[in-house]
Design a protein that fits this description.
The protein has about 375 residues and is of the alpha/beta class. It contains 16 helices and 17 strands. It has two domains: about 5-255, TIM Barrel (Alpha-Beta Barrel), CATH 3.20.20.70; about 300-373, Arc Repressor Mutant, subunit A, CATH 1.10.10.920. Helix content is about 40%, strand content about 25%. It has a nine-stranded mixed sheet, with helices on both faces. Helix 1 runs parallel beside helix 2 (about 70-85) and helix 7 packs parallel to helix 9 (about 215-230). The protein starts with a strand and ends with a helix.
Length: about 375
């Protein structure tokens, strides 16, 4: 039986680079739409030949800022995917956008092209926080964009970042309450993380500001769990909250270890071929990608694939089916670690499902390190 199949398209350009971002992104510049259409079509055709007889569960335009891409590029990718694979009934086609007035003006065009879910990078509903985060919009334009997106698309989501320096817990509760009142059926709530090599990492290294203490961000995380559940958007994954039925189908392909094609500069993919898990990665530089530089491919060992599957699946509130735990952890020499984490109430396993508990998901990175180190 085939796994669910998604396509991820990475658009590498942004109007500006946010100081917390460590994605493969570049400042926006003049775009040759025809060249991008040709390159993306070339790779979609190549991967379609390796996944015959399957239909797409999801198509996701990420970045970067794909809402800055020429509309013909978005239209071409959707039409090409429809031709090469076809879409399952209820398939999700998501595009990321920012709440700038310029991007709002293009919402109807994206909807007409076939996008049926918009993901807005709001990040905050506080003007001072948006300035700190290096965003191009203010709180009022964010609210206008959410309203415009709800009018143009059947499904929307937006992101918020918490754990900013000096942010009081009550301020986060007030901001999240305001966000929930806007009526989006899905929210992604991320703790601000300092990624190596970013402008924020350099600022912290130079002592310009200090991230909040772990206990402060833990309280913010717990507040988010409580408030979203109370509003009918419980967490279904560590950072994602949704009304029932509004979960991100594309991200569920990742978290349930389905197959996905990655195209665009620096995009990753995972395919299952002859029982083996194949990791793919496209060239990072846009010029190399457009010129058709080779993609990297690695066949994961059975152990590597299992570790990756567990690392993704344990993010989900419902955990992941895992009947081979005895054999895997005994062979890996980490069964005692699993037993200890279960005893500590951080993991649970009933012989069928392996689940990170509420306490476990809050410190999942630490658990994964202990389990697989």
């Amino acid at each position: 039986m085939n796994k669910p199949l998604g396509v991820y398209v990475h658009w590498p350009y942004c109007a500006r680079i946010c100081p917390y971002c460590d994605f493969n992104v570049y400042k926006n510049r003049a775009i040759d739409a025809d060249a991008w259409i040709a390159a993306l079509t070339r790779d979609l055709e190549k991967y379609a030949a390796r996944t015959p007889g399957q239909k797409l569960t999801s198509l996701y335009f990420g970045g970067g800022t794909p809402s800055l891409a020429p509309l013909p590029v978005i239209e071409s990718v959707i039409d090409t995917c429809a031709h090469l694979w076809g879409f399952e009934g209820g398939a999700e086609i998501t595009l990321e956008a920012n709440p700038t007035d310029a991007e709002q003006s293009r919402f109807d065009g994206f909807a007409s092209a076939g996008v049926n879910r918009l993901s807005l990078g709001v990040q905050s509903l506080r003007d001072d926080a948006l300035k700190f985060l290096g965003r191009d919009h203010d709180a009022e334009s964010a609210k206008r964009a959410i309203e415009a997106a709800q009018a143009a698309f059947p499904r929307i989501t937006f992101d918020l970042i918490y754990g900013r320096p000096g942010q009081p817990l009550q301020d986060w509760r007030d901001e999240l309450s305001e966000a929930l009142a806007l009526g989006a059926p899905h929210l992604s709530l991320y703790q601000l993380t300092i990624e190596p090599g970013t402008a924020f990492a350099k600022a912290v290294d130079k002592g310009r500001w200090t991230p909040p203490e772990d206990d402060v961000t833990a309280d913010m995380y717990e507040a988010a769990q409580e408030m979203t559940a109370g509003a009918g958007l419980p967490a279904y994954e560590i950072s994602n909250h949704a009304k029932p039925g509004e979960e991100s189908r594309h991200n569920l392909v990742y978290w349930t270890y389905g197959d996905y094609v990655g195209v665009g500069p620096g995009a990753h993919g995972r395919l299952t071929e002859n029982g083996a898990r194949i990791a793919t990665e496209t060239p990072l530089a846009p010029k190399d990608y457009l010129d058709g530089a080779p993609h990297m491919e690695t066949t994961l060992s059975a152990s590597e694939a299992t570790i990756e599957r567990l690392s993704m699946g344990l993010r989900l509130r419902n955990g992941i089916p895992f009947t081979e735990a005895d054999a895997f952890f005994t062979e890996a020499g980490s069964y005692e670690r699993l037993d200890r984490l279960i005893g500590d109430g951080l993991l649970a396993w009933d012989g069928d499902l392996l689940v990170a508990t509420d306490d476990g998901r809050r410190i999942l990175n630490r658990i994964l390190y202990e389990l697989f180190a």
